[in-house]
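Consider the following assembly input.
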Amino acid sequence: MQTFLIVVGIILLIAILMYNNLIAKKNQVNNIFASLDAMLKKRYDLLPNLVASVQEYTSHEKTTLEQITALRAQASNTTQNTHETISLDADFSKLLGTLMLSVENYPELKANENFSHLQHTLNELEEQISAARRAYNQSVTDFNNALEMFPTNMMARFMRLEHKALFEIPKSERNTVDVKKLFKH
Amino acid sequence: MMKTNVASLMDYFYEQMYGDLKILEKDRLVIVSKLQKTALILIILSLITLIFLTSRLLFPFLHALVLVSTFSFLVYLFIYRHQSAGYRLLFKEEVIAKIVQFIDPSLQYQSENHISENEYAMSELFLDDFDRFSGNDLVQGTINGVALKFSDLNVEKKIEDRERKEHWVSIFQGLFFVADFNKKISHKTFVLPDTAGNTLGVLGEWMQGLDKRWGEFVRLDNTTFERYFVVYGDQIESRYILSSSLMERIIAFKEKTGKSLYISFVNSKMYLCVDYKKDLFEPILTQSLLDFAPIKDYFQLLSHVLGIVEAFKLDEKIWSKR
């Protein structure tokens, strides 16, 4: 009887530890996602200014600007789930990248102090977002691992936890372009 | 602009340093011959004493040998210290200071000064209380617009063993480097040598996760970096600081140095400690000053340290800190 009680006690203790561990991992993911989301919002807030100043100097970038405005509206109107936030961010980064490249064609715009300040803030924010993405991905990987590995996978199934999606790291971030090299040829 | 070219150092050596070094070299030779004579006299004296002590049967041979050799060794050490002290100062003035001048004339060098206790404490890298704090060879100034400072440090603590005997234990001995960091930061991030993770594997990593002295354990996405280091700090900001490129640069620096590195990012400053376990920039009495090779070694060490600014791209101004 006594040994039986001890065994039950140990099993219960392990179950509690696993449960708490999974909850901690889940909350870690949520926490980091919240900070990431805040940064993405900050970036969306910068956009009206950006669109306004680009519009002033350019005529050919209309479609990109319209797309950006549309995406921003989408981002601010609906309350999104994680998947939507992730896909919106990916679209956004791509658009912003093309815009920043085409800006190179407008020297007047580049010379504008307001715009260059905006560009710098955006660059800085982009770096922070990239760090947050990496942090998020690591926490999701930890969480997903726990969902698949034995014995936490059994507990996770019991708790009905689901896999979470990773942020796709934009290609431009994976291999940084060496600008100096480009100009050498 | 920092000069790192060995060929132009050679020109500088023969044009600017050689004349003074010739005079100092004479001093060195005098000291060396004095020390040789002292050693000879001490050996003869010890032998006489040894024979005297054992022939009169005052002590057994082994005891007498230990006694006499310890005593004469201490006497020699005293004379050595006394003789080389003046030479050491002149050496630093003529060699180290000149090389620092050559690399960048705007740099300041003080042979008898060091990084302050306060700055050491600010880094928060070593949490043990210390009882003895010393150092020398302070270099400070700006490289490519980045304010920096470094010196030799030797930080020790006193411990008592079971027999109540006191021992000095080293907490850190090596090079302590501080520079302005180019990103605005509000949390603290620590990069420490990964000892537990390497020796104990998964178990070590689990233990590192429990260690909250430096903050939260951060697992990064660069496997080589993870093999060398363990990182503590804020989950997002530590990744903001340790961008993929900075991680690569730290790995390269670590592999080039081959020593343990301790790095912290606190209050927009980067602290970097290289655990050389010895006092750097010291003269070797038996080495000729007129040889270029040792001069080159001192120069390469100095430019390696000053090169941290460029190697870690600390001079790349990030927008928020403009």
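DSSP finds ten helices and nine strands in chain B. Ask yourself how this observation constrains the way the partners meet.
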